Every structure is written in C-alpha cells, then in structure tokens.
Amino acid sequence: MYFLKFMTVMSIVYVWCVDFKIINSSRGGFLLMINGFTFNKQCAKGKMWICTSKGTSRCDAKVRMEDPSTVIPYNIQHNHPPPKYHVTKDGKYIKL
C-alpha cells in the first residue's frame, strides 16, 4: 500500500510517500513493514509504532498510524540495515 501525505508548514508544502504493509509475525502478532524495516505497536491502544531494533540497536525510528490507511513518519532514519525475513506458505514472516 502506498500513502501520499501532504503537509504545509510556513507556506511550504512537504510531500512524502510511504510504502507500508501490515505483516503477520511468527509469534502470532502483527508488525508494520516500511521499506523492509519493521515496527512494533508501542502499546495496545496507542498509535505510535517503534522500530523492532529499538532494544538491540537503540534505533529511534518511529511512525504514527492514524488509521489503517494513514501512516505519518516521525523518524524513519534507521541506524542499522533492514532485518531479513523468510515468508512461510501461510504468509507469516520469520526473522532470520
């Protein structure tokens, strides 16, 4: 899914496009995948998603999901390469 976002700040229009999808994790949960990087939902009722490498790499990348079709990037700069996954026949993503 592609999302095109427009924002106007001091008469300057900023446009960004985020390619994202919700994937099934091998543990039965869901992850948000953007350009190969994965994000966990910060809390059950929250809208913020943080990089799955926050604990191991201290990555500060995070996004906000307003609704199922709207993702707002807060910081999508990562300090590590994207994780590698194997996709099973039933569509689950297993981190390698």
UniProtKB/TrEMBL annotation:
Domain FLYWCH-type residue range list: 23-80
One Pfam family this sequence matches: FLYWCH
InterPro entries: Znf_FLYWCH (IPR007588)
UniProt key word Oxidoreductase: no
UniProt KW keywords: Metal-binding, Signal, Zinc, Zinc-finger
Signal sequence, renumbered to the chain: 1-17
Keyword Amino-acid biosynthesis attributed: no
The protein, known as: FLYWCH-type domain-containing protein
Organism encoding this protein: Loxostege sticticalis (Beet webworm moth)
